[in-house]
Amino acid sequence: MLYNHGRSPSQPARAGQALVLLALTLFVLLGFSALAVDVAFAYAERRLLQNAVDAAALAGARALYAGQTDIDVITAEAQAALEQNLLANHDPGEGLRLTQFQVQADLETRWVRVTATADIDRFFLGAFYSGQWSTSAQATARVGEQPTDYAFLALEHDNPNAVNLIGNVGVRIVGGSAMSNGGMRCVGNGTFQADGTVDAALSFSQTGNCRFLAGQGVRSGLTPVDDPLTTMPEPPRPTVPSPPGGAAANCTTSGNTMTCPPGHYSNAISHSGNGSLLFPGGTYQFDAPVTFSGNGTVSLGPGFYYFNNGFSVGGNATVTLAPGTYVFKKGEFSLGGNVRLQLQGQPTSCSGSGQEFRLFFVDSSFAVQGNFALQNILPCDVLVYLRNSDFALTGNTDSVIPPGLYYFDGGTFRLQGNQTVTGQDVLFFFGPGSAFNVVGNTRYVLSGVTDPTKLPYPGMQPGLVIFQARGNAQTLRMVGNSGAQVNGILYLPAGTLELSGNASGTWARGQLIVYRFATNGNTNIRVERVEHVIITRPAVWLVE
Q1: Are 488 and 463 in contact (CB under 8 A)?
Q2: Domains (ranges, CATH) in the chain?
Q3: Contacts of 20 (CB under 8 A, 6+ apart)
Q4: Helix or strand or coil: residue 46?
Q5: How far apart are CA 158 and CA 180, in angstroms?
Q6: How is the beta sheet containing 390-393 ordered, strand by strand?
Q7: Spatial CA neighbour of 258 closest among 271, 246, 245
Q8: Parallel, antiparallel, or unpaired: how do β-strands 218-219 and 198-200 relate?
Q9: CA-to-CA distance for 221 and 160, rounded, in angstroms?
Q10: CA-CA distance, 49 to 505, in Å (whole number)?
Q11: Mind spelling out the 3-state secondary structure of 409-426?
Q12: How far apart are CA 249 and CA 255, in angstroms?
């Protein structure tokens, strides 16, 4: 048996083929490795170019925000930012080489768009591919206003004491933030604290044990925030009707009832006891005082009433006013004792039905020691205008005042005594020379109109409860005794809000927008954020 230990004639050919295949395989693997290196590098350069384009768009938008409208200036700012960004990530002459750079800007809608294309360095790819190897990126930045969560805003610019806290102060903003367009100062013991941020355009000054605290940071050097209500109109100034005159008239008495028909009364009208004083309605002018005292009733039917010398009611009487116009000049409208004032409306809506109460006080006052009773009264139904006149709630009897617009034109809203005054769906407007004054232990709960269909005047911001005129720079002093509360927007665009007293619990629920803010004494208040108006701050941000 023969054994052959040599190679067959075909073996050398198969070995040569394997070497060729191995070489080809190594070449392909090398190509893939080279491609992987270049592709990975290209992706990294793409991210760098996108970052640089983002920076360029933001720089161009900042130039637009600063007031630049020349596209060449905006382009120069954008290109400088892009080149600076690229230089920070590459050595000079290496990396990305720009082949295209374009800046577009829309001055009306305030956006800037930057587009850039750049060639990318190759490592191994050049041995296999000689075509285009580049990347592109695009970014758009917008100039505008971004919503904030401010529940407190002090509008005064350039004053380091725009917010000035003195004494044993405790101010807590719950569920929101605070902003001062000037600075914030705190002297004494206490804190100004917000769940969000505490911001200021200027600096913070802290003396003693006073501190500014915030859940999301205390920040200074911010851009001032615009007044969100700057375009809101003030309520139109009412026109006081002229005396109607008319034919002379006289009252008649039957039993305990005195009835006074429409007309012009030159002599005083006086009635007392347990009976009634009845004005059936129509047009009236009274040149002498009208008085009633006792436990009876005074009824004024629908019409126009002009009191030239006062109207006073005392005792335990009930006074009923029907819808109409009531003018009190010189003499006061005085309700003393336990008098109950009832506004007797009709079922209505705020659609101009004419069922309104219009009370005008000229060099007079509205002095109330009793209480109000309301029937079918909406905030759009009631206007109380006080020119050089006071609205004074005094005594120890709690009062519920009617909803509506209280327009003070040189007068004062006085709360005095040991009582709680409640006003739901009310707006107090303080024109130049007008003031708000709380004396004693009076507590107040005042709430603005939030239903847009029931606003006291067109263009009013829903939620507004106190509005001091833009030309009124007086200090509005409010006492924060326990139980006092303001629900809605307190808006003093030119005035100072000064708080004092021994408040506890929630003093305000809404938003405080004031020119300047100060505390004095042992003030300790909580402001719970309820957004009625959106407060924004200037910002530049990327939108794509």
Answers
A1: yes
A2: 16-144 (3.30.1300), 148-232+470-544 (no CATH), 252-460 (no CATH)
A3: none
A4: helix
A5: 10
A6: 269-273, 290-294, 311-315, 333-335, 365-368, 390-393, 412-416, 435-439
A7: 271
A8: parallel
A9: 12
A10: 55
A11: EECEEEEECCCEEEEECE
A12: 20
Most distant CA atoms of the chain, gap in Å: 161
Q: Is the separation of the CB atoms in 56 and 114 below 8 Å?
A: yes
So what's the pLDDT on residue 7? 44
Nearest alpha carbon to residue 78 among 112, 106, 43: 112
The amino acid occupying position 83 is E
Q: Is the pTM of this model over 0.85?
A: no
Determine the Cα–Cα distance for residues 172 and 397; give it in Å rounded to an integer. Answer: 31
HEC secondary structure over 157-181:
CCCCCCEEEEEEEEEEEECCEEEEC
What torsion do the CA atoms of 69, 72, 75, 77 make, to the nearest 10 degrees? Answer: -80
Which tokens is 130 given?
């000689």
Buried b (16+ CB within 10 A) or exposed e, 189-223: ebbbbbbbbbbbbbebbeeeebebebeeebeeebe
Nearest to 526 by CA among 237, 274, 266, 192: 192
- Token pair of 389 as six digits: 């006149």
Only one residue has tokens 């109000």, namely: 372
* CA-based nearest residue to 467, from 443, 454, 486, 444: 486
Answer for the pair 365, 389: CB distance below 8 angstroms, yes or no: yes
Which residues lie across from 327 on neighbouring strands? Answer: 306, 360
Parallel, antiparallel or unpaired: strands 311-315 and 290-294: parallel
Do 72 and 31 meet the contact criterion of CB atoms below 8 Å apart? no
Asked if 508 and 490 touch (Cβ cutoff 8 Å), the reply is: yes
d(CA 297, CA 389): 26
Cα(285)–Cα(247) distance, integer angstroms: 10
Kindly report the length of the chain: 544
Q: Which of 145, 146, 147, 142 is nearest to 64 (CA)?
A: 142
Q: Quote the pLDDT of residue 183.
A: 97
User: Is 312 within 8 Å of 337 (Cβ atoms)?
Assistant: no
Per-residue H/E/C for 360-376: EEECCEEEECCEEEEEC
Q: What pLDDT shows up at residue 6?
A: 45
Q: What is the pLDDT of residue 227?
A: 97
- The DSSP line for 296-335 is SEEEE-SEEEEESS-EEEEES-EEEE-SEEEEEESS-EEE
Q: Distance between CA 523 and CA 180 in Å, rounded?
A: 19
Query: 506: buried, middle or exposed (CB in 10 Å: 19+, 13-18, 0-12)?
Result: middle
The gap between the terminal CA atoms of the chain, to the nearest Å, is: 86
* DSSP 8-state class, residue 216: T
- Tell me the average confidence (pLDDT) per consecutive run of 10 residues in the chain, 544 residues long: 43 57 56 61 83 94 89 94 86 74 93 92 61 84 92 97 91 97 93 96 92 96 93 96 96 95 97 93 97 94 95 92 93 85 77 74 85 76 93 77 93 80 93 83 88 93 97 83 83 92 75 94 88 93 86
Please give the distance of CA 82 from its chain centroid, rounded to a whole number.
Answer: 38
CA contacts within 13 A on the Cβ side of 145: 12
Q: How many CB atoms lie within 10 A of CB 452?
A: 11
